[in-house]
Amino acid sequence: MFDPACPSGVTPFRIGDKWAGMVVLCLEDGPRRFSELQVPLRGVTPKVLTETLRALERDGMITRTAYPEIPPRVEYELTPLGRTLFEPIAACREWANEHLPTLLAARESFDRAR
Amino acid sequence: MFDPACPSGVTPFRIGDKWAGMVVLCLEDGPRRFSELQVPLRGVTPKVLTETLRALERDGMITRTAYPEIPPRVEYELTPLGRTLFEPIAACREWANEHLPTLLAARESFDRAR
DNA sequence: CGGTATCCACATCGATACTG
DNA sequence: CAGTATCGATGTGGATACCG
After folding, report:
1. Distance between CA atoms of A111 and B12, rounded to whole angstroms?
2. Which residue of A11, A13, A83 is the best one to mutate when testing the B interface, meaning the one whose CB has the most B CBs within 10 A?
3. CA-based, 20 to 30 A from B68: which of A9, B32, B60, B109?
């Protein structure tokens, strides 16, 4: 997902509000900072990322931990509930990785026929 | 999903354009007619259902078969590619079935705290 | 029955600028 | 660094009516 050519960004089967699923995937290996999350989610504005993180926190998927430092540091981490969500989302990612070329070929063929 | 109280309709992890994932799930047991699909997808307007089905057909997920009869009959069916998509989507459905109460409880708790 | 055709409300998403 | 504040474009979804 950190690759600019990663197909996750164009998969038509993104989860929910477009970014939430990718955030969950980004948190697989442990806590991440706000600015770290902005990297793989290319193009996401701070506003939208904030909204996404708030929504996930509200639903008990992630925790937000702010450290009272200068400069400020905030870390987001999957909760146990969030971890249970990781699996089905990862399954969707696997599907996209495997079948996206087929899908795009079908799409192109369909468009050419019209 | 055919139950009015089914949680699938409120799951925050719906796939893609909100209806596409549910359509795939609806086609699990074989071909379905346009009007049949309108039943479990409560509230979907003909326009939106048409758009959803076109998009799925375009991506090679379903086939559309029109029978030249009076009155007209049209059936939609999963392609082999569409069948491969069924599994990860079903996994998301299972997740929702299992964890939605926990999620809603977390949400309510979060909202009460603010 | 299985759609189209219009029109519209609303939410989402984004760009930009600014702050503790 | 990690946001917030505004504002605006976009487009998705929906209500309603009509057609072959």
Report:
1. 31
2. A13
3. B60
Would you say residue B2 lies in a domain? Answer: no
Which 19-48 residues of chain A approach strand C with CB closer than 7 Å? 19, 43-48
Q: What is the pLDDT of residues A24-65, one digit of tens each?
A: 888 999 999 999 988 887 768 999 999 999 989 998 999 999
Q: Is residue B1 part of a domain?
A: no
- Where residue A81 sits, what CATH number does that domain have? 1.10.10.10
Kindly state whether residue A1 falls inside one of the protein's structural domains: no
Rounded to whole angstroms, the Cα distance separating A69 from A82 reads: 27
Please, are residues B40 and B73 in contact by the beta-carbon 8 Å criterion?
A: no
* Contact check, Cβ <8 Å, A60/B91: no
The gap between B47 CA and C3 C1' (Å) is 8
User: Does residue A93 belong to any structural domain of this protein?
Assistant: yes
Q: Could you tell me the residue range of the domain that residue A29 belongs to? A: 7-113
Q: Give B10 to chain A, closest Cα distance, Å.
A: 11
Tens of pLDDT, residues A61-107: 999 999 999 899 999 999 999 999 889 888 887 888 788 888 888 98
Element (H, E) at A78: strand A73-78
